[in-house]
């Protein structure tokens, strides 16, 4: 039911819409600096570093193995994959499963994460809801069903009002997600003000609980390396090279005397 | 003596930007860095803000390279005042001790760093460079091998190891290290060319074929690599001149060698374009190519 077009007071724009944008933005920037101050250095384990580099080397072998001679490739593949002496078969790392409840460092990290991210969001959201309640802010450009009404129109009890008209709380949430690209522009990539990335991390769950199990990683690398064939990229390199004259552009400066 | 800024009419911002460019490109023009950096820190230190610390580090390393121990000491003292517990500064202290040839003290410094942080690669690499500076190549090779067992991805280390092996004439192992580098940097023509040179030096029909292929690959990646072009010519003519090859292989290699010679001639013609002695230099090139032909004795 498309209601009549409402004409909103322009002071709403000046005193509500823009302030919410600024508030969200500055709170985000503040969050970024606070989390930087609170973040603790992760102590790197020598074995973890070494393992990650080995996995990287194996991956490089799979992808770029075609640039080295056949024998060298097989020598390396044998080193990694041989049934008895291969690295991936031989090396088993002791994996201590880290229980997120009892591991103290994990716990403090989780608490810090919650503190800097979720708490401000709830507080500010609630304050905005209280301070800017009772009127609609803006209209979303696409039609919404009636089910969205109680969610997006807090504090307004008009049955006949189109669900597209939203209140300040929903504008706040829109801002939280929309300003992500602004944060990466101003604070650089990988900043702590990026809410949705953190929520994504929490959803994948295991990523936060323990480091990826090295044994599983080794096994999957072993399987991947087994199936790789060596297709030497240099089979017909001379023919390809000599198909045309070499391009010496710019090799000598014209004023060489 | 006029200051650099007066001589070249550059402002302090340009000097700072020049230093940053050298830092990012990893250039080793230590004398220039020392000249520019010394003036920058003595006159404009306050204007540099937080950049001044990294400039201190850059100038200090360049000063050690030029034997300017006084300048190195000043930079080090400033850095130590600002960052008293930093591993990075401790490494610089160790480097200064190395420059003064007090190797045992330097070693103690690095061991202390490694005790606190076993994953610190910089300290381990400095220890290996000490061994190299003292001329103990076998120990250096051994230590570098152990280092690489743990940090397989360190390309600088692989390159250093290949150089050490080449010095010891162990070309097989040098080729292994260069293969690692080629895999991680498939588009770098210099690694291809170095690998081809090592294979050529090893000798033997298979290695010569490989050398020829990798010279060709280096040329494909960069058409202007003259060294690879000469290498291609040499390896092709070497294979063609060997008595043990089949007629087809001989024919192919003569074709490759002829093509390479033609390209070399073209390159020299292009080089001598503006030159009056044009004809003489081309003849010289042809004679040189003829003399490089491998003849069977």
Write up this protein.
The complex is a heterodimer of chains A (about 260) and B (about 300). Chain A has about 260 residues and is mainly alpha-helical. Chain A has one domain (about 10-245). Chain A has helices spanning about 10-40, 45-65, 70-80, 85-90, 105-130, 150, 170-180, 180-185, 195-205, 205-210, 215-225, 235-240, and strands at about 140, 165. A two-stranded antiparallel ribbon of chain A has the order 1-2. In chain A, helix 1 (about 10-40) runs antiparallel to helix 5, helix 2 (about 45-65) packs parallel to helix 11 and helix 5 (about 105-130) crosses helix 7 (about 170-180). Mean pLDDT of chain A is about 75; it is low at about 205-210. With about 300 residues, chain B is mostly helical. Among the domains of chain B are: about 135-185, no CATH class; about 195-295, no CATH class. Chain B is about 80% helix and about 0% strand. Chain B has helices at about 5-10, 10-25, 30-45, 45-50, 50-65, 70-80, 85-100, 105-115, 120-135, 135-150, 155-165, 170-185, 190-200, 205-220, 225-240, 245-270, 280-290. In chain B, helix 10 (about 135-150) runs antiparallel to helix 11. The model of chain B has no long low-confidence stretch (mean pLDDT about 85). The interface between A and B is large, with 36 and 37 residues.
């Amino acid at each position: 039911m498309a209601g009549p077009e409402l004409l909103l007071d322009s002071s709403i724009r000046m005193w509500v819409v823009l302030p919410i944008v600024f508030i969200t933005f500055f709170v985000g920037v503040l969050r970024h600096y606070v989390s930087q101050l609170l973040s603790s250095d992760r102590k790197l384990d020598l074995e973890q570093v070494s393992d990650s580099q080995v996995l990287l080397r194996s991956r490089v072998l799979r992808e770029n193995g075609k640039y080295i001679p056949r024998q060298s490739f097989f020598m390396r593949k044998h080193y990694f994959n041989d049934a008895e002496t291969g690295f991936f078969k031989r090396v088993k790392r002791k994996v201590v499963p880290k229980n997120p409840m009892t591991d103290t460092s994990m716990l403090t990290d989780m608490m810090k994460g919650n503190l800097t991210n979720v708490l401000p969001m709830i507080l500010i959201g609630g304050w905005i809801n209280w301070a800017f309640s009772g009127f609609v802010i803006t209209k979303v450009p696409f039609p919404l069903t009636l089910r969205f009404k109680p969610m997006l129109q807090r504090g307004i009890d008009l049955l006949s009002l189109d669900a597209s008209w939203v209140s300040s709380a929903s504008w706040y949430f829109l801002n939280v997600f929309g300003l992500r690209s602004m944060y990466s522009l101003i604070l650089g990539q990988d900043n702590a003000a990026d809410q949705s990335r953190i929520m994504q991390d929490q959803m994948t769950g295991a990523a936060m609980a323990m480091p990826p199990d090295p044994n599983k990683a080794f096994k999957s690398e072993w399987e991947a390396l087994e199936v790789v064939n060596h297709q030497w990229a240099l089979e017909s390199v001379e023919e390809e090279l000599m198909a045309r004259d070499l391009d010496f552009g710019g090799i000598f400066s014209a004023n060489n005397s | 003596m006029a200051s650099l800024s007066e001589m070249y009419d550059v402002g302090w911002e340009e000097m700072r930007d020049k230093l940053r460019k050298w830092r990012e490109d990893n250039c080793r023009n230590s004398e220039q860095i020392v000249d520019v950096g010394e003036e920058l820190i003595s006159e404009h230190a306050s204007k540099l803000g937080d950049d001044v610390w990294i400039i201190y580090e850059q100038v200090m390393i360049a000063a050690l390279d030029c034997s300017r121990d006084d300048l190195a000491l000043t930079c080090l003292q400033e850095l130590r005042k600002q960052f008293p517990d930093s591993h990075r500064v401790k490494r610089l202290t160790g480097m200064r001790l190395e420059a003064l040839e007090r190797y045992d003290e330097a070693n103690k410094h690095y061991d202390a760093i490694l005790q606190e942080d076993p994953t610190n690669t910089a300290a381990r690499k400095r220890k290996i460079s000490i061994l190299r500076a003292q001329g103990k190549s076998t120990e250096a090779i051994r230590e570098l091998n152990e280092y690489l067992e743990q940090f397989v991805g360190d390309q600088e280390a692989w390159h250093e190891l290949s150089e050490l092996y080449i010095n010891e004439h162990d070309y097989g192992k040098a080729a292994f290290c260069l293969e690692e580098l080629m895999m991680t940097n498939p588009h770098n023509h210099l690694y291809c060319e170095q690998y081809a040179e090592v294979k050529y030096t090893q000798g033997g029909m298979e290695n010569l074929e490989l050398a020829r292929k990798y010279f060709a690959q280096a040329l494909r990646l960069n058409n202007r690599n003259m060294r690879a072009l000469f290498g291609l010519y040499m390896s092709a003519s070497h294979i063609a001149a060997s008595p043990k090859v089949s007629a087809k292989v001989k024919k192919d290699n003569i074709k490759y060698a002829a093509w390479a010679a033609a390209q070399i001639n073209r390159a020299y013609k292009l080089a001598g374009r503006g030159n009056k002695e044009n004809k003489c230099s081309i003849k010289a090139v042809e004679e040189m190519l003829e003399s490089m032909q491998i003849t069977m004795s």
